[in-house]
Every structure is written in structure tokens, then in C-alpha cells.
Amino acid sequence: MKILVIPGDGIGQEVTTWGRKVIEKIAVKFGHSVSFDEALMGHVAIEATGNPLPDETLEKAHKSDAILFGAIGHIKYDNDPTAKVRPEQGLLKIRKELGLYANLRPIKLFDELLGASSIKPEILKGADILFFRELTGDVYFGEKKRSEDRKTASDLMIYHQYEVERIAEKAFKAAQSRSKRLCSVDKANVLESSRLWRETVQELAKKYPDVTTEHMFIDNAAMQLIKDPKKFDVVLTANLFGDILTDEASQIAGSMGMLASASIGDKIGLYEPIHGSAHDIAGKGIANPLASILSVALMFEISFGLKKEADAVLDAVAATLKDGFRTKDIADSTTSAFNILGTEAMGMKVLERI
Ligand code: NAD
Known about the structure:
The protein has 354 residues and is of the alpha/beta class. It is 42% helix and 18% strand. The chain has 13 helices and twelve strands.
């Protein structure tokens, strides 16, 4: 296994350390040989090379079997909308260059974290959703314009039929292996690109008669997700809607620090927490490393077909939570102060349990 680690910025660097250590530990336990390389992306890459995605990083990515990524972003760019070179350009470019069009975001609540969410436990218990967020189209990649007087701006929301088809195929197949329910989220009452999305999904649904397909508008979906998360199983959605909806869904799992993701497509998979570089806690040693560790479980299962190894990671995380250990973001009023751990101590607890 040749794994490229791209820690990125802020807490990306802090949590990825633990994702990597988990890979090393699992490799030893199960007798796999693994080699690592490291590369720059985001603000750190701009500082070092002037480019948020240096050619060297892309070359290393192409040569790897899988990528473990942290997060990108720096407060300096968030507060300067006029900056031409930006960290997120690196992430968008690597997704496009590697053909990573499907972002899988499983939302599964560990029972031990029922009290960590702001949603009532009885609403949450048993929630288990798999999001398919489209990743290489939409307003992220459509033409961006600004008028000469700079007082008008637009971002083109664009989708091609093939882009909808290829991610919808993956979502339907996943639905077949789960509870055979798929909810496609769009805004087809207003947006032409959503009407293309809905037509395409409706057409494809005929190939999967065993899957019950539902179409929902994004505004309604945002409400239903909190009202009754158990009504969802596989959720298929476009890039922007998926971005927003899954941050919302992170509250079902207790915290942004719990949500892992897999970006897949043509060949190489990229695995990353859904959270960003979190300027507010970067450098404090308190970031939750579990989203990065859970991303490693996805890597074992999806890129390498190693289910036992993936389960060993999930079991170790579950055991750590069961033993009462929490980072600050997932602690609740019942957590003993002694059990509230920083990034390193939490990572160590998981390693010990592997
Ligand atoms: P964020 O995801 O970084 O943080 C949102 C909130 O969640 C913050 O309060 C943060 O402290 C908390 N949080 C996130 N991850 C956590 C963890 N592992 N443990 C504990 N708490 C955690 O989003 P933001 O604040 O909107 O953005 C910060 C920067 O990250 C921006 O520059 C943004 O552009 C970038 N960003 C990058 C990605 C990515 O790399 N995929 C995604 C989103 C945002």
C-alpha cells in the first residue's frame, strides 16, 4: 500500500498525524506492508511554493494507491475575498485532476454519543445515513464572473447529464446493499440544473426497481434531516447542497470532528474528515482526531477491500468512546473532567485499543 499523506493546514496537520499512526498500527497487526509519502496543499503550499497544489503533490498523488488528507484553509484568505490565490483552489483542483466525483459521507451515531448532540436522543437513536455528494461540478467549477464596476457577480451552477448519471449509479448500487431507499435532493422547482438532475435520476431509477426513490427539495430536506433523521438512508445530492447538508448532518453524529469521508471516482481514493482547518482551535491540541481515524477505516474498506481492518478501526473507536473518553467537542454534562482528552491522548487511546 502506497499512501500519500497531505496534512494541509490548521487542525488538518494535527488530526492527520493520528490517521497515519492508525494505518501504521493496523498494518503491523494484520501484516500489511505500507509505505508513506507526504505532500503540501493549501496555505502551507502557497507559503512554500506560491501554488496551493504544487505539481509535485499532484505527481505524488498519481503514484499513490490512496490519499489521506487533512484540511485546508487559513484565516487570512477567509478575511480577504479579493485574494487571487487561495488554499481551497488546491483542493478543488486535486478533486478534478483525480476524477474524484463522488464524496461518500456516512453519518452514523455511536450510541455513546447520544447525549453529545443538540438533537433529542429519541429522535437520533438508530440514525444511519450515507450521503453521496457530487464533487466535481456545480457552482464550484462553473464560470465565475464579476462586472467591470465589481458591483455584480455570478457563479454558474452547471451540470452535465453524465456527471449526474455516474454518481447516481453509485448511490443506487449503495442503496441496493443497504435498506433499498434513496432520496435525491435538489431544487427542481427553481433551478434548471436541478431539473436535469431530477430527470436523470428518475430515468436511472427505472434500472433499479428494487430501490424506492424519493425526490426532495433541499429546503425541505434540511428541515426533515433534523426533524426525523431516521427517515433517510442513502441521500444523493449535488456539490453545494451536499456540502451544506452534511455539515448540518454532522450534528446527528455529535460533532464535525466525528464525520469521515471518502472521495472516489476513476481510480485513486482520497480520504478526509469533512471539517475544515478550524482556525478557532488550531494549535491548541484539542481537535478531535476521530474523523481522520474514521476516514482511515473508509480507506481500508473502499480502496483496499480490507473489511476486517476497517472494522478493527471502527471497533477501537467504539471501545474508546465506550470507556468514556471524549474530546471537548463530543463531551457532555455526564463526562468526567478526567476523561476529556486532547488530540494526542485521544489518538493514543484508539491506538491502544487496536
Ligand atoms: P471548520 O470545519 O474548520 O470548523 C467549524 C467548527 O467546527 C469550528 O468551531 C471548529 O472548531 C469545529 N471543528 C471542526 N473540526 C473539528 C474537530 N476535528 N474537532 C473539534 N472541533 C472541530 O469550518 P470553518 O470554521 O467554516 O472553516 C475554517 C477554514 O477551513 C476555512 O478557511 C475554510 O475555508 C476551510 N474549510 C476547509 C475544508 C476542507 O479542507 N475540506 C472544509 C471546510 C472548510
